[in-house]
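tool_call: predict_structure(chain=1)
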Amino acid sequence: ADQVVGLMLLHDTQVVSAGGWGGIAAENRAVWHCDKAVIRDHEAIRRYDLYSPGYRFLPYWRQNAATGLKDRQFVSWFIRQPIQMGPEAATRNYWQYWTREETDTNLPHRAIGIFCNESDWKGEMAVKVDLKKLGFTHGAKIKAINAVHSTGYRIENAGTPQENGAFYPKPEETATIRGDEVRFPMTEWNYRMIVIEEER
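tool_result:
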């Protein structure tokens, strides 16, 4: 489920995956897990208003802001770019259709990287990022957040009538940025949503 969600976000596609295929039932058919596996993804999408027009999408095949990715690793960016409203907007009542997140140029700048690992490799990723290309001003104080995987998800009692999805904290799943290097753990065939945000 995580891999599918990552690929959807990597391509700026609405996340529609719900759960994943589970154990084998007595009739030798696959069991569909509950949709809890995707809840943490949707919570992060809502928290950062990821699908709003207040972001510019920079796909992995065009981005040059991140270097140091290994073979079969990709990153697409959602870069905060508030909607520029002209002076006529107030008279036409356009503002009611937009949120503050989408229009307020005084909010902290943010770039969200969808890092996908389409390989068996796992470990700590160390990626160089060009902060200027991501829209940050020189000398800005910046933090990195692992937006989804700091909460873990597992299936309990798989293949039984009591099968259930459960969340648990994963304090080891952090993201750090020092200078121009972002570091975070990555597992095989998975993704991470890394938020790089200006601190004010």
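agent: The mean pLDDT is 86. Proceeding to next step.
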